[in-house]
Amino acid sequence: MGTDSKFTFSPGRIFIYALLIFCALYYLAPLYVMLTTSVKSLDEIRSGNLLDFPRHPTFDAWQKAWGGACTGVRCDGLSPYFWNSVKMAVPAVLISTLIGSLNGYVLAHWKFKRSEIIFTALMVGCFIPFQVVILPMARLLGLAELANTTMGLVFVHVVYGVAFTTLFFRNYYISVPDELVKAARIDGAGFFRIYRSVILPLSLPIFMVCFIWQFTQIWNDFLFGVVFGGTDAQPVTVALNNLVNTSTGVTEYNVNMAAAIIAALPTLGLYLLAGKYFVRGLTAGAVKG
Amino acid sequence: MASLSIRGVRKVYPNGAEILKGINLEIKDGEFLILVGGSGCGKSTLLNMIAGLEPISEGDIYIGDKCVNDVPPKSRDIAMVFQSYALYPTMTVRENISFGLGIRKVPAAEQKKIVDRVAETLQMTHLLDRKPAHLSGGQRQRVAMGRAIARNPSLFLFDEPLSNLDAKLRVEMRAEIKLMHQRLKTTTVYVTHDQVEAMTLGDKIAVMKDGVVQQFGSPQEIYDRPANMFVAGFIGSPSMNFLRGKLQTHQDGLGFAVEHAGKQTVLPIPTSHLQAVKGLRNKDGDIILGIRPEHVTDAESARRSESANGYHPTEVDCVIDLTEPTGPDTLVFSSFNGERITCRTHPRAAAKPGQAMRLAFDLSKAVFFDPETEQSLL
Amino acid sequence: MASLSIRGVRKVYPNGAEILKGINLEIKDGEFLILVGGSGCGKSTLLNMIAGLEPISEGDIYIGDKCVNDVPPKSRDIAMVFQSYALYPTMTVRENISFGLGIRKVPAAEQKKIVDRVAETLQMTHLLDRKPAHLSGGQRQRVAMGRAIARNPSLFLFDEPLSNLDAKLRVEMRAEIKLMHQRLKTTTVYVTHDQVEAMTLGDKIAVMKDGVVQQFGSPQEIYDRPANMFVAGFIGSPSMNFLRGKLQTHQDGLGFAVEHAGKQTVLPIPTSHLQAVKGLRNKDGDIILGIRPEHVTDAESARRSESANGYHPTEVDCVIDLTEPTGPDTLVFSSFNGERITCRTHPRAAAKPGQAMRLAFDLSKAVFFDPETEQSLL
Amino acid sequence: AEVEVLHYWTSGGEAKSVAELKKMMEAKGVAWKDFAVAGGAGENAMTALKARVIAGSAPTAALIKGPSIQEWGNEGVLANIDAAAAEGKWDASLPPMLANIMKYKGHYVAAPVNVHRVNWLWVNPEVLKKSGAKVPTNFAEFFDAADKIKKAGYVAIAHGGQPWQDATVFESVALGVGGADFYKKAIVQLDQASLTGPTMIKTFDTLAKIKTYIDKDSAGRDWNLATAMVINGKAGMQFMGDWAKGEFTAAGKQPGKDFLCVAAPGTEKSFTFNVDSLTMFAVKGADAQKAQLTLAGAVMSPEFQEVFNLNKGSIPARAGVSRAKFDSCALKSMDDMDASSKAGSFVPSFAHGMAIDSAKAGAIQDVIAKFMNSNMTSQAAVQALAKAAKTK
Amino acid sequence: MSVTSPSEIKIPYSPKKASMPNRLQAFADVWLPRLVLSPTVFASLLFVYGFIAFTAYLSLTDSRLMPNYELTGFGQYQALFELDRWWVSAANLGIFGGLFILFCLVVGLLMAVFLDQKIRMEGALRAIYLYPMALSFIVTGVAWKWILNPGLGLEKMVREWGFPDFSMDWLVNSDMAIYTVVIAGVWQSSGFVMALFLAGLRGVDDSIIKAAMVDGASLPTIYRRIVIPALRPVFFSVLLVLSHIAIKSFDLVMALTAGGPGTSSDVPAIFMYQFSFTRGQLGLGAASAMMMLMTVLAVLVPLIYLESKEAKHGH
Ligand SMILES: Nc1ncnc2c1ncn2[C@@H]1O[C@H](COP(=O)(O)OP(=O)(O)OP(=O)(O)O)[C@@H](O)[C@H]1O
Ligand SMILES: Nc1ncnc2c1ncn2[C@@H]1O[C@H](COP(=O)(O)OP(=O)(O)OP(=O)(O)O)[C@@H](O)[C@H]1O
Ligand SMILES: [Mg+2]
Ligand SMILES: [Mg+2]
């Protein structure tokens, strides 16, 4: 919005750049520490400064973290859990996004009596502390025979993700003119046909936002994973936690850091690849400017 | 094609606001009805109810001779064009037009034929593969119309289809819509807040205000004999001039007496016109004279186009406040009895602001209103 | 107050597009300049350059006798009104108006006085404590003007200030702007794409197309003697009619010969006019006749308002395609030599579509164009 | 058949130890499902366990120790493994003190895996030598040594400021200052008089003094980082349980030579134990129940107790395990255990949840943590302690 | 459209027959939307409101390790209010919440405003600011712990650079530990706030800024007086999101200080977790959870009310 290229070399500009770069350093510092530590040897870590640049970079720790580190009796590294996470996150993200999208469509374009109140009431779901739901949810999952399965985890993430996705989609769809829906109704399309042919094709930006948001939330979740994941469906965060937290053993910091980065790779990748859609999607709808 | 009848229709929104307060309108098969009125008067609401997009609170709507109160939009055999065009942004023009056909299970080959023919008629064959975002305003408008035509409905509904276009394009598209109606003869309801559109397009005009139809009639009727001051002021551009004064006997008829430039001026009312305006006879006290700008012209033009029946417009000297040359005419603004009046004069005759000018008041088409009720005295 | 002079101004955007290709305009102190043209022709760009909001690629802009190329907007002593009004949404009307004063360190008491005076002039004293969101379009427009006036600048800039208003309001606000200019006599540059605004408001009009000024002159000049077919078609509503034909000697003068309804029709050009249009004399081959709708009228009206010099408009029988009653006149559309022509007739005289009607072509104001260059033959 | 075991042994040596158990079970034809949840002091594991129990799918066994076994027993969700105990003659091979902990209402419900001794002091002899200090046996000597070490420019006491480490130091100090009887009265029985008495005040005074020898960066430090300070010769001594030995050996250090394991000052005759035990949950199906008994038997088998404890640094819970492969520290531990059992100074570790139920333990831990991290007076501390002990 | 080619349109197809009976269609139009929404509504009734009710119930019982359904009154609340540690957590939530929100707003807004100045590397910088959102604190907690640890990280580094008096020991200082949580929290969330603000800034009408420039305002004045006030709705969304993060923050504190030193940086979420799950005081945990929920409501309700009011009176 700055209106002129005149400012290009003024002191003000230099100040702005300096400040932005300073901020960037603040943001990058933890990543730097993690990256350098992950390629140092344990000796180097013990003896040196953790902000030092690695002297003899080695990727052993990465290999171990991925395929060899112990997280209990299993010493297969993170890889099996990583795939557990994928199996959980992908369906959960897709389902919660889709449901959120349908809900948003209803709440924005098929309003009925009290639908606004329902919307507000649904929003409370965004704010419930997850610790509160553990016990009753465990009981229900047990009854439904979903306890300790990936299905169960998907279910839980969908239930508590839908509030957010509904909020995102509703705010986005509000900006789609009502007339479009009216036109399609007159053209003879029904509820689902309008959704499929008119609304859905318009939703790419907000789908991106929801995918990113939901994927981050679900991939990074630890509490649900540890409580409802049982033994077979434990996501990568739980494994990482097992790897990093030692009660009475030696801590391999380089492996921990490598594991941490591995566990974060999908979300990081998503942000780097689709981050610009994130900002764009927010601009397009979610924020009323 | 079908007639349309709206009987005692009311609309109360869930929030309790009564937006339409008993609307009665009736048009014949093939007629072109205009709903015109200020913003928020309920025009779109009424149109949406005809389309079936809003439930009816009370009353009935008949399309043809069938009550459609409970018929869903897609079964009403209507097509609608929206102010924002409401083109499906992700579909090409071709897909936009054939969408409704596809849903109605028209075979693909047939669809293609229809789309091509419609595109040809509207001269937009070259646009068929574009997306709406790559079309200009006028082209979008055309596509929206194409989409409506393609379905060949028995009732067309337009909601301010031209108000997003610029002035020039608006004039062109107006003519196109009129031509289209002449060719297809489909019954049409057209919402606008632009009185020029109302006048030029409609067979029938319903002037609305606050959810009530103020007057319903042909354009000429409404222009010449507005039912009240609202309609009179609303229809016609520039607006009708209103002067407050008294009736007075003048020679063998009546005259309209008004203070001007410190002295009493009497504008005689032509006898032929007096007969039409019967309500005037026994009116005491103040009344309001309504006179359109084209009936207050420069004296020279007036004399030249003097009406046949020997009535002479009264000439009055006025000081000019402002002139607006529009090309063919020049609008002249002046003050009369403290009120601004607008006059339409020949460009050559217009004086400069501050100068005096002789204006001729032609009362043979004047209308009179009761200052209390604002109703026309007819 | 100041004169404005734009000398050889060019604008190339960083993306390489040359949007303005050498603009030269000059207006005197107190004049009202209109920049008019289609969308995207560079009007706003030029205005922003005058305001100092866009750097100038080449050329100079003088306000008064000072080159302002390197003067920042706030020091140019200008005020600007935007199409979207650009009112500060979080401030009340009063704050909006006094913001610029505050920044210029006008004492608070003074500010209040100025705001009150401006509000009174624009009749919006009761709005002073509202936020823009709670104002109607017309009121916002008024506030935007108030903000501009308050600063009492030496140059007013308007960027399509009326295009977001509806037709009725537009007409009213147009008059207000004109009155304001008459009162304040501040030099003004006004951008619009509406030719009616251009005609009615301007002292000088610059018609632009593709970054080039097509014609620069007074409204009447541009209306009566458009420099080329673009200007001729752009200015005037409905548009000028263009007919393609040949010149032919006719009686002792020249006539414009054109095919119509299967036979040759010759429209004689009045001798008085011929003298004005010297370029015609030695013209072979096709030429294009431009004639405004008000010069093609019903025969009866034509006869009545016959020009003094004994020239009789030629009468031709035409079949009517469409009529558009606007109230004071009725527009009639017909075909002539395969081309659509628009005629402005008396409401009484207009025939029904499909019927024949006798139209009178008054060539005493006609213009002629070279079909190749589209330039006027003068 | 399969067994599912919830535990938080996830790193290095301990993970290897569990792997041994897994191997043994698989040899007996029972599949092993590993439900490992690390973090905190088993906080996450407990949360997961509760969810599993509520969901009706409790694991076969879970790593639960001390009074918590009774708490779970009260919920009625534990399995009776008397059959396995009878077969393995547990009563005969377990010290009665331990056997009682493993029982709910007279029936075995849990199998002990090991015994950790908590009241160790780990010493770097090199540092002591350089500072001219000698290995302390009581607090007077201890502070004398600490002063010297500090003067020599080392950190006297390596410590990690986490509540459980604070509590570990606290209990060693209480034991050293007040002796086993005081410890039992105050910390196990929560006798109000003992809690507020002069001995307890002295305990806190001592603790306050210890605080002054801890470097200021200790807050939040993991215990093994503190141990590393001793290993690297940055610090002289550390209060920590016998699992610290694993860190030393991993760094290639020899007990008795590169590092010393001595009883915390004044606790030579006492032994605070921390017994890890697998508590058995009621499972459905005869198959599963049989597998559960097999697991219990395997855990108590001398072979397993040997390998497991060799790996983990602790000593076997049961008698009759060959001492051959254990190092000097472990051997000392075993001897002290026998001696203290007889002397009645074999006491449960409060810091590791062996002494009192979790609510009270938590509340007391909060008080200690607060004391360690603020300027609270000893007087105020004992009052707070007494109040915390009343937690329901 | 040319008038002259009235090639009469005759469309053979005329949709006189609806594909579905009218009644059914009308019925579907009314009920389908509700039907689609109903699973979510039921899920929310059960999994949100039902569970809240369950927790409320538990808070009135003497549940220890496992739920116990015998009502015993408000004893747990009384016990809660008598606990020092609870008040420490509550105060910490106040400090953390307030500062976290404040700094996120300030940092996020500043970065957004600066990024909006046609910055060359905008895309890259934006990605850098945004990426912490992608990481869980289980991942970054260790790194932060190291950086903030005086013996290992920043303090040591700066001292080695030759500023021996530099001190950054908040992490190990009981009085300051909660502020390190603020630092890490701001690190994680301010990028997201920046993105929201940036989106808002891009939505502000350009001509308003031009108008202000003509009015004579300098760029900082324009932002301060006009642009930023116009972002009011964005402030609401941001506040909503941030207070939600602040109140629920668990991972963050757990990974960084685990509530320490001592209990000095404890927050209600940790309090609740520990009491419910490791200390066998489920009833007390439930009571603290209810208090948390009430705090959420106390923040949320006025915010939502204000925003909807604003929206109504806004455009
Ligand atoms: N869903 C609704 N609930 C309550 N009031 C409504 C609703 N929709 C419209 N209104 C109100 O009904 C009135 C009429 O609205 P309508 O859209 O019919 O006006 P309009 O005549 O089409 O105006 P415009 O020319 O601005 O389009 C307005 O005052 C509007 O605020
Ligand atoms: N910053 C820019 N960079 C590149 N091209 C631009 C920029 N701003 C405007 N243009 C282009 O310059 C041309 C002229 O724009 P301008 O806004 O001056 O048109 P205009 O005459 O005001 O049109 P309108 O009537 O639509 O407002 C347009 O084609 C536009 O796309
Ligand atoms: Mg409308
Ligand atoms: Mg423009």
What does this structure look like?
- Chain E: The chain crosses the membrane at residues 41-60, 93-115, 127-147, 176-201, 222-247, 282-306.
- Chain E: Residues 90-305 form the ABC transmembrane type-1 domain.
- The complex is a heteropentamer, with 1 copy of chain A (289 residues), 2 copies of chain B (378 residues), 1 copy of chain D (392 residues) and 1 copy of chain E (315 residues).
- Chain B has 378 residues and is an alpha+beta fold.
- Chain B has 10 helices and 20 strands.
- Chain B folds into 2 domains: 4-234, Rossmann fold (3-Layer(aba) Sandwich), CATH 3.40.50; 241-369, Nucleic acid-binding proteins (OB fold (Dihydrolipoamide Acetyltransferase, E2P)), CATH 2.40.50.
- Chain B has helices at residues 43-51, 93-103, 108-121, 137-150, 167-184, 195-201, 219-224, 229-234, 271-276, 299-304; strands at 4-12, 18-27, 32-37, 58-63, 66-67, 78-81, 155-159, 187-192, 204-209, 212-217, 241-250, 253-260, 263-268, 286-291, 296-298, 314-325, 330-336, 339-345, 356-361, 367-369.
- In chain B, the strands form 4 sheets. Chain B has a 6-stranded mixed beta sheet with strand order 6-7-8-3-9-10, with helices on both faces. Chain B has a 5-stranded antiparallel beta sheet with strand order 13-12-11-14-20.
- The mean pLDDT of chain B is 88.
- Helices cover 69% and strands 0% of the residues of chain E.
- Chain E is an all-alpha fold.
- At the A-E interface, helix 1, helix 4, helix 5, helix 6 and helix 7 of A face helix 1, helix 3, helix 4, helix 5 and helix 6 of E.
- Residues 43-44, 159 of chain B line the site of one magnesium ion.
- Residues 13, 15, 17, 19, 39-45, 193 of chain B line the site of one adenosine-5'-triphosphate (ATP).
